[in-house]
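Researcher: Here's the sequence for the chain we discussed earlier.
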Amino acid sequence: MKRASLLSLIAFIITIALTACRGAPPPQPSGSDAGQQNPVTSSTVTSNTTGSIKIKGEVWADNWSAFYLGDQLVMEDSVPITTERSFNAETFTFNADYPMSFNFIVKDFKEDDTGLEYIGTSKQQMGDGGFIAQFTNAETGALIAVTNSDWACVVIHEAPLDKACETSSNPVAGQMPCGFTALEEPVGWKNANFDASSWSKASVYTEAQVGPKDGYDQIAWDSSAQLIWGPDLETNNTVLCRITVTGTNP
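Model: Thanks. This is the structure I predict for it:
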């Protein structure tokens, strides 16, 4: 190949490469930066439970929830709890018969057992939780259950035990003021005959207190559905909530 032709070919290849680079999309965020995008999720899941009543469940949580019918997992938040600042609406259907044992595990995001987020930055703080759910007959639209103070809840992870931890320059989990309490889930707590008499009634919060967003407005909440959590929105990081719904099967 002649030298001039070779140089022209090289120049042509370089031009194509530069054009492709200029037209390439910007790199996508990853890691912790990706978690700052406030993902809005509204997934629809149909479970393989059995029963004569088809039920539609709708949940919004800050940050993560899993729902069980008895001890059978029906819905798990589509965004992992390790994703910072995720607020998600989840919709799912399942079949059941009365009496129904509805059980939730709900978690607020935390970086570690200090219960804090943005550790080591100017935004270091305690997170705050909150969730709301409603269940309706998927065929008739009749209301079956909503979250309110009738639910029994227990806190199994609480941190920090002293809120002064929030302003600590070196927060270390387990060292005061950043102590924490971490308990195992009670054995058999999802069973319908579990004795939850020692659990507290769910604490009810207003929209102003929880500040729901990103998916919350995607659901037409019944006026009786309430935002609930443990007794402290900031230090209660993992909460178990349950209720038994009685009624008449068709």
